[in-house]
Amino acid sequence: MDRFAALIDALVFTPSRNAKLALLATYLRDTPDPDRGWALAALTDGLNFPAIKASTIRALLMERVDPVLFQISRDYVGDTAETASLLWPDPLGERGPPPTVSEVVAELSAANRNTGPRVLAGLLDRLDSSGRYALLKLATGAMRIGISARLAKTAFAQAFDVSVDDVEEYWHGQAPPYLPLFAWAAHGAEPPRADDLPLFRPFMLAHPLEDLELDLADYAAEWKWDGIRVQLVHVAGETRIYSRSGDDITATFPELAPALAIPAALDGELLVRGSHQGGNEGGAASFNALQQRLGRKTVSKAMLADYPAFVRLYDVLVLEGEDHRPRPWNERRGVLEALVPRLDPQCFDLSATIEAKDFAELAGIRERARDDAIEGVMLKRRDSPYVTGRKTGLWYKWKRDPLLIDCVLMYAQRGSGKRSSFYSDFTFGCWNGDPDAGAEILPVGKAYFGFTDEELKWLDRHIRQHTVNRFGPVRETDKSLVFEVAFDSVHHSKRHKSGVAMRFPRINRIRADKPAHEADRLDTLKALIRD
Amino acid sequence: MGIRVLPADCWIDPARPVDTALVTHGHADHARGGHGTTIATPQTLAIMQLRYQTDAGAVPVAYGETIDLPGGVTATYQPAGHVLGSAQILLEHAGERVVVTGDYKRRSDPTCPAFEPIACDVFITEATFGLPIFHHPPIGDEIAKLLAAREANPDRCVLIGAYALGKAQRVIAELRLAGYGEPIYLHGALERMCRLYEELGVGLGDLRPIAGLPKAALQGQIALCPPSALSDRWSRRLPDPITAMASGWMRVRQRARQRNVELPLIISDHADWSELTRTIAEVDPAETWITHGREDALLRWCELNQRKARALALVGYEDEDD
């Protein structure tokens, strides 16, 4: 447990991604089985101990510390587990030897609601404050230390010098402490196989098209729908839906899983029914509507009725036992077109290809994407196998040109990583009326990229010289600088005072030449809403 | 704004210029300039002179020495163990004894003499770390952490954010006690105070300015700067620094994270919870008055231990960087 606690502390205080990777990789390499597997599960939300709740911790503390002092401390620290780790009294007499991670997992798993508090107290008595913090975080499953599943897998690959794609593929279907996975990566055993499990397979991704012109004899075109990329997998009576990052989001979309009953792995865009994207024919609501459905653990009937989800399919990876990934796109497309009529039309449709005689005509069609509120066009090489990641020359995304608006810089905050110490996170706004008639600037968005390093230095200096107020880490400026902001689309929002929210805003140009009162008005931005 | 001593018509640690000020120690929020008469230890007066460039009205009082104030009040200065020159002030009037601790700690500190408990009727204590979560570990452990980080990162430099008065010199002195003989590099804002410490007899070893050095010269070295410089552009001149901060606040992870601290060092010149409560019990006053800090928790402790106590709401003291 000491090593695990030291790892947690180091991860908490290490801002850089690469340094986090190195810390994790070292831990995974140097820690014996099964501790490292349990630790990995703890870091990736793979553990659950129903016997231990946050209330268990509170109750234990109340028996040992004055409740008023506990509450004052809790309010100051802002985190129950950390407060408890700091306040836990040292045991009378000698502290026992610290438990291993495996011991902790074994004891917590065996505990029930009645014995849970006693078991946890016994473990806390054997640890110092760092160890107690790690234990409490592990026991309640709320790590929140900035380690995504993807980062953990990347670290695993780095630790044993294996490919992260392989790790992704073998990881799914494995349960903690992942002994076969470590046996494969660390000791060269056969990779774990689980053909009877609904496993995630890493996605094939697209490059931005930039200034290329492609021959449509070699490339097929499809619309680029603005939803979330998903993979549906059905094996042995079970269906799972995976997001771009490989997270299992089946529970969020309960209407979809039962609709796929054919053994398959399918690639598509998850959307909500509507007429925003591409009108009635397009049949999909805006991303805003889909957002109502994202991130929910339970889904109400009203949600299902108001925002019915479906998947627009564009590829087939596996079908009825056959792996189609090595086959060219046009053959897979044929398999997919034959499959779609066998699926429930409520839940699935086919991503149509765009017919155009040449690239110039396609460019014209793409121009109209704005009016249809479609994100852009995808181009897929007709002979491309389905390969993991972003391989040059196979798939391209060709987004429509961004919208532009002139905004005024309002607030700035210091960035992180290589931008730490520079003011690099910007909030900007538009006038809510005539600036000469007493209008105010209301914030409309935030951006932290789109500028060069040189421009960043200039901006940092501007902000330091034009600060009128400070709120903690945030500086308010004198609102004199104009940004030309590029963004993909703009939507109604109840969450923002201005009533609008932009998608993918970035700084396109710094308009130091333009006076602030000539920046755009909110009405101009609102006129671009296509909700 | 400080504590007023009515019968003697003077103030302790006033936040505004007054005719007569009794100053416990040299931190800027306690030792403001511009008083008519400033009564303090010679070391505190030297620190104030360095800062305000004047010694007008300075009246030195050595540790253990008693001086007479108007109105039949006497004041005796005793070590507080906080920083060089820091003192508790014992006030006596008509048979009543009041002790004002100023800021204090009970841990050993190679840069100043140790706190001594003084029997009194009213004990006016600080409460900067007046929460039971605050426990300062032995400083040797923290220094060992610091040296281990340096050892493990020969290409980087360990940059420690530390208060210019007291904390910086204590960290340096503790490094020397731990046998660290290499040069220690200083941000310009720390140089004068370190020099003054040396003049006052606190040896700090080989200290060198950072200004003008190439990045490579600082690889594998230890450097100190004021906390405000840690995340400033200034730190970019150092080779990929490991940002460390020496402060009692580092006990709380979020506090360290908010300041982007990679290596939190829990080193404080204030009493932690157990020192605060142990000291009240040891002094055993008839009444405890609690000033600047987290009064509510210490008040609660007094209540639980049947001790008469009240909070004095003093404004103007800053403790965020300690």
TrEMBL record, chain A:
DNA damage as UniProt keyword: yes
Enzymatic reactions: ATP + (deoxyribonucleotide)n-3'-hydroxyl + 5'-phospho-(deoxyribonucleotide)m = (deoxyribonucleotide)n+m + AMP + diphosphate
Signal peptide region: none
GO BP term (any one): cell division
Pfam families: DNA_ligase_A_C, DNA_ligase_A_M
Class in the EC hierarchy, top level: ligase
Record EC number: 6.5.1.1
Keyword Disulfide bond assigned: no
One GO MF term attached to the UniProt entry: ATP binding
Sorted UniProt keywords: ATP-binding, Cell cycle, Cell division, DNA damage, DNA recombination, DNA repair, DNA replication, Ligase, Magnesium, Metal-binding, Nucleotide-binding
UniProt-listed InterPro entries: ATP-dep_DNA_ligase, ATP_dep_DNA_lig_pp_1105_fam, DNA_ligase_ATP-dep_C, DNA_ligase_ATP-dep_cent, DNA_ligase_ATP-dep_CS, DNA_ligase_N_sf, NA-bd_OB-fold
Span of domain ATP-dependent DNA ligase family profile: 302-432
Domain of life: Bacteria
Name assigned to this protein: DNA ligase (ATP)
Automatic annotation (TrEMBL), chain B:
Domain Metallo-beta-lactamase residues, every copy: 7-163
Source organism (scientific name): Novosphingobium kunmingense
The protein's name: Putative mRNA 3-end processing factor
A Pfam family this chain is assigned to: Lactamase_B
GO molecular function, one term: RNA endonuclease activity
